[in-house]
Design brief:
Largest interface: C-D, 41 and 42 residues
Oligomer: homotetramer
Number of helices of chain A: 11
CATH topology of the largest domain in chain A: Dihydrodipicolinate Reductase, domain 2
Distance between the termini of chain A: 40 Å
Mean pLDDT of chain A: 97
Structural class of chain A: alpha/beta
Strand order of the largest sheet of chain A: 8-11-12-7-13-14-15-16
CATH superfamily of the largest domain in chain A: Dihydrodipicolinate Reductase, domain 2
Largest sheet of chain A: 8 strands, mixed
CATH class of the largest domain in chain A: Alpha Beta
Radius of gyration of chain A: 21 Å
Number of domains of chain A: 2
Helix content of chain A: 25-40%
């Protein structure tokens, strides 16, 4: 492998900027691997592409993403456009021999996700999804603790994901309330907890889901109201073999901003985590003097890899954007053929299938095996 | 009404002592109503009854509870014996014209609960159940906040109740793992959250339940193992009209000691509460300057009735036993014909019916309307 | 000792009610010792005395406290009147051969405290002060942990006590802002932390104090303003031998309701405690796997004596009034000649001397040895 | 100003890497200002310099920092070497016409700090210190809240800074325990809180300090022990005009990893902050319905500038390294002549003077005016 790797970026919104920052910093943070060269940036218009290329430090800018795909200087493509474009872009990039780093979720329709997964398989290239929460040093620590048997055999899990960007009933109707955008909280949100369950617990074997609409209608620009077609709330009972669990997601939960709260119960202890305090985990161990037992709050530090690559002192705190840098590093490891902590298109398709199984369960009011 | 009221107490375990303390303190705390006179205490043996009567300050002691029921000095009977005895004792007390304060749950079998409710109705006496958590000043405050519209229209609720007294897989098999004791966490635990849902949200209209066993078997005294027959975990999706909700109970949850965690989401805010920190509630209001919004932690104080009857200064904290004193005072109000905050036998029967409906839902794997 | 002990109560405000509840409940909670008989209650007027006697269950009521002192049925006297009356009443009670349970602080003037201590010494009776926070099961647990060496050798302590009843600058001038009431936060508040330092760490050897007035004047009824004469804030550097420490008290601290926050640092760990969450303590131990170290939050339970006398289940929570019941029980132990956890008049005088030494330090701007 | 700015970096330890990351990301994050070009990196040896230049993406590498100072491509120099080198390097850089971004503290000796400040003044260049905590969006928010009068007039402040890297008494003696390194916690730590007090409250007018050694000696490599010469603990009473305050710093505080805890009390409310949870602040406002008052926990979000430049969604969290990116952006603003939030060499010298005044206060046991 050469000393550098050529990067292309399609889309420069929230996640596009995250990817740009990750590509820029990954080498300085980790010190290993090729140096990313920011070769080509594509946006909806040439103007916007050029402006962003200036800000982010890309060498070329295009108003047409296909030019980026055709650029021989580009080795890996970050796709951060709206979900509806993922399939077309990812398939094209893979067919052009590029590696792909695509934001989640894969696609609105299962058929598109399947197409993406097939293209990845055929291409022999690395294709991963932006499930960044699995990269949190504290989540990695939880995985290690479970693996070490620190809480014995896991028997019950609860996971909640809540934000409040849909909580205002008088906020205007927009595309997230349209059926064409998907089911609602189930695909918009639940995929993140599902990536964590996959990494920490295992494959779901059975689900029972209920979706709910906190608000029947929302105001429209014209002054009228339009019926809401998606579900801002989804509640799911699930099983991972013998492990029972609950998944609850709500994008209308006033006061919650980035909550992903995990409760994992085992035969010898419990673990708690909340993404809103991503630099902490809590562990209860049913051992030692009984009068001294309680939940121990562990602050992230250099012992919780790869926190040490960012900061050598404990308790200083990583941020959300740092998760994306870690994810980028894992992608580079995968590209180099090293074992990597990623949700690739195959695993991602598994998550998509679960989401659709949950929607079927809701519709049919019965347990469904994904 | 005379200046005093004659009290009988059957059972002197955990709850028996709580009742005794409540009867002893209620007049000094609240200053109103009749003075309770501790007339008669019954226990399984005369010896034990006499010892406890000495400690608790009762005038008479009997080894046979029927003597207590026959005692004309007794106006109200506290029943704090194991659940299996509730029905017989409560019915006898009511038929003898006594008021009854019976610990929860009503009875293992629905038929017994129905018998108790019928006896109460016939008697014209006051008959209430020991659902003390509804008496917490913070729970009362939550009710007021919801009533005032502080969080708008409630649309989603999550409630968890967890303890860890069944969490040790190597703890010996005992009666709580026997099918004769009931379903498990569902009737042992879920009744408390159900009392809170009833008071704060309303009547359940639909439930879907799943029960789970974290441990298949437990060791027996003889050195063998015995299959566990009850479910230490129960997870329930529910609806109260348009409000969706989740109820999760787990008596094998390492690290949880007395957790009853409420999350109530509305169209204008949210409320959080955890019984392990019973002197606090958290409220988020979607109003005021956006940059200053967040969950406000309110500490219990004299403005949260009836905290003021215990302590005139805020932030000093009530304890669990104080809830029982408040409950006792509400019982006395009911006896005087005043409006009272109680779960009477009729409401309690409603809770029992929901528990049995949940068990049916689990068995049949379908939504059930209680 | 007979089976009962005769109780007299002078004063029926906040603390008077606490004492009454403690006397009423102590036998039922602990099961041992004599049964308190509520013999005689004294208040400022006969009317009030009679009303309170009815509520609290006392047999006799007087508008003159000297009648209570003369009552041969009274063995022990609870003194809960304003501080200015403590000395006269306590001395009279002791000289009449009664045991005394007097609320803190002992007296406004050191000479009065000395007189009380001398009377107690002469009388051979038990005379204790109402320093209830040392009775908290979690504080007792901290003492045990330190004694066991759980955090090694203590080398640094921080203690804060804050409330906000003087925080409103527009609240009317009242006696707490008059110099005749004492120094301000120093004697009003600091005595509580000092009782904790005494029990947990040891005798103060050196102090440097600064007092401050957050508000220079306060409004008066007439519409004018009056200069504030006391200090609502006091900050103290101190030493207990080689242990350095900080004491900070503030009765104008908006948002603090009953905060007494302890931070104790040792060579092998640390302990944290806050009275606003009196059923929790936090301990950090510098041992075990480094990646798992953190503060462990321990919830009060039956293993933390004497929590078990109140509730057999952990995590259910004691309240402030329960501390007074424990204190009452310790008093009864002292009266029976058993080792007891109390601040007697001799120890209390030591606390008073420290307060006055702090005030001298402030005045002279130098370190003072109490 | 040209489109780019040439960056030199001296030192590549903890802070050196932070600076490198900041220079790399600042343009992509903020979108404005010149693009930093990483021109020249200097380390103690050419080998190390070249390795780090490769990792961090610098164009040139030198084993002699003077070559970097002489490099005409370099416009601004980051100095992140041990404190003893700051003065010589900063003065040389300023005299060569470079802007300087120097890590804190300025220098061990006051004379060196004065020399640095004079050189900055003479040069007309921008010279700032790495007091990154003032850059936290939540700290900025606190400043705004105070400025808006959200808590009325500030009257009392407490600030604590604690870590535990010196907490192990059996850790080997190293240079931080030598007198040549400075006073100990006072200059190693206290400068950070002092930067916060300066920004949030104002200039200290009077200090009284006490320093303490938790451990008298530490083991040496040879197997013996050596007397500790510095103070790991420092406690300071202070005044900012009428505002009283406490500063407590402890680098031997087991369990504390990056705690900088602020308590700010005003006439209409209070604000709390802890750097270990840098994405939260707490505010209490003495307004609105009294029954609903409490501390509101605000999660950082786009409304708290410049969080929005990093992440458009609230509650996702910035990390420690992001503070350095913000600091870098403020430096660039200063270089462009725009108003900037920085501690320049003049303000930094003020902080150094306070530290030395505190040491004098400790020595002389008296209040000192800096």
């Amino acid at each position: 492998m050469s000393d550098t790797i050529g990067v292309g970026l399609i889309g420069t919104g929230y996640m596009g900027k995250c990817h740009a920052l990750a590509w820029t910093s990954v080498k300085a943070v980790f010190g290993d691997g090729p140096r990313p060269r920011l070769r080509h940036l594509a946006e909806a218009s040439t103007d916007l592409a050029e402006r962003r290329a200036g800000e982010f430090g890309f060498e070329r800018a295009s108003g047409d993403w296909r030019q980026l795909i055709d650029d021989p200087q580009v080795d890996v493509v970050s796709i951060t456009t709206p979900n509806a474009f993922h399939a077309e872009m990812a398939v094209a990039a893979l067919e052009a021999g590029k590696h792909v780093w695509c934001e989640k979720p894969m696609a609105v329709h299962l058929a598109d996700a399947e197409r993406m997964e097939a293209a990845a398989r055929r291409s022999g290239r690395v294709a991963i999804l932006g499930y960044n929460y699995i990269q949190s040093p504290m989540v990695r620590q939880i995985e290690e603790l479970i693996g070490q048997g620190a809480i014995g055999t896991v028997n019950h899990v609860r996971i909640e994901m809540d934000e409040d960007f849909m909580a205002d009933p008088e906020a205007q109707f927009y595309w997230k309330s349209e059926a064409s955008s998907g089911y609602g909280a189930l695909d918009d949100f639940a995929v993140h907890p599902l990536s964590l369950i996959r990494v920490l617990i295992g494959e779901l074997t059975r689900v029972f889901a209920q979706q709910a609409k906190p608000y029947d209608s929302r105001p429209t620009q014209g002054g009228g109201r339009r019926a809401v077609e998606t579900f801002d709330i989804a509640n799911v009972l699930f099983e991972v073999g013998d492990v029972s669990g609950i998944l609850a997601v709500n994008r209308s939960a006033w006061g919650r901003k980035g909550r992903i709260a995990l409760q994992i119960f085992g035969s010898a202890g419990s673990i708690l985590y909340d993404q809103e305090r991503m630099n902490e985990l809590q562990i209860y161990r049913a051992s030692g003097a009984a009068a001294g037992q309680g939940f121990t709050t562990v602050l992230a530090g250099p012992l919780h890899k790869p926190y040490d690559r960012f900061i050598p002192a404990p308790g200083h705190g990583l941020g959300f954007n740092d998760l994306k840098i870690i994810e980028c590093h894992e992608l580079l490891r995968a590209i180099r053929g090293e074992p990597a902590r990623v949700i690739d298109f195959s695993a991602g398709l598994g998550i998509e299938r679960i989401v659709h199984a949950m929607a079927r369960s809701h519709r049919d009011e019965r347990w469904v095996r994904p």
